[in-house]
Design a protein that fits this description.
By secondary structure, this protein is of the alpha+beta class. It has a single domain (about 1-10, about 40-220), classed as YmcC-like fold (Beta Barrel). It contains five helices and nine strands; from the N terminus they run αααββββααβββββ. The chain has helices at about 1-10, 20-25, 30-35, 105-120, 125-135, and strands at about 45-55, 65-75, 80-85, 95-100, 145-150, 155-165, 180-185, 195-205, 205-225. The protein has a nine-stranded antiparallel sheet with strand order 4-3-2-1-9-8-7-6-5. β1 (about 45-55) and β2 (about 65-75) form a beta hairpin. The longest helix has 18 residues, at about 105-120. The chain is globular, with a radius of gyration of 18 Å.
Length: about 230
């Protein structure tokens, strides 16, 4: 996962454009998803709880599990020591510490999992998939809109950002099943950790509104002072 974090970090331009050009240029997707520093206000010890759901036309029932983002420690410079406790049963994964400052590491973990899944299905090409997602974060999103989400019984403002990393890339012809794959991020400064929902979908070519595979991660609540799960 650290490789993927580095790749995204390298997508930040080193030379800033003139102010007038910057004002006229649409913001890249990473500005909404990563730049606000949503994770900065999450301090140890805190556990962020999420609900994960996987549905597929090949599955009789959806796979539903929980995901925990555990901030167990914090260094003097503000860097958090985070453990990710993901999925139940034979799919269980627990890893850490993952250093985090202002970006929620669960986003990067799910993106890395997604890249690995595509690599397995395609028989390779992990670098290609990773690069296209990184480049998509550096472009204006395919869709961007203000939405409202509910947290603790109250409605709060949020923003939905959609990425289509592969649609316009000529090389995706080798992996046509992923051409219209879409990534939605719903983020809000009112949500601990910033991420309210993340959705990864592969739409049905015959019916784009019907996904053949859908992964959803939804924020449930934050527990301050919560004990860590077993290591």
């Amino acid at each position: 996962m650290r490789t993927f974090v580095l790749a995204l970090a390298l997508s930040v331009p080193l030379v800033l454009p003139a102010a007038a050009e910057e004002a006229a240029k649409p913001e890249p997707a990473r500005t909404a998803v990563f730049a606000p520093g949503f994770f900065t206000e999450v301090h140890a010890p805190t556990v962020l709880l999420y609900r994960y759901e996987l549905t597929s036309e090949l599955m009789k029932e959806p796979y539903v599990s929980r995901v925990r983002v555990e901030v167990r420690g914090e260094r003097p410079d503000g860097t958090k020591e985070v453990w990710l406790d993901m999925f139940d049963g034979p799919n269980h994964r627990l890893f850490g510490p993952v250093p985090a400052e202002d970006q929620n590491p669960v986003i990067l973990a799910l993106l890395q999992k997604d890249v690995a899944t595509m690599r397995n299905l395609a028989g390779g090409a992990q670098g290609y998939f990773q690069q296209q997602i990184r480049l998509a974060f550096g472009r204006p999103p395919a869709e961007r809109e203000e939405v409202t989400v509910e947290i603790d019984g109250r409605a709060v403002p949020a923003e939905r950002v959609r990425l289509l990393p592969f649609r316009d890339d000529p090389a995706i012809v080798r992996f046509s099943k992923f051409r219209d794959k879409r990534y939605d991020f719903v983020v809000s400064k009112e949500v601990p950790g910033g991420l309210y929902r993340m959705v990864i979908e592969i739409p049905d070519p015959e019916d784009p509104e019907k996904p053949v595979l859908r992964e959803t991660l939804t924020f449930l609540r934050a527990l301050s002072g919560a004990p860590a799960s077993g290591s």
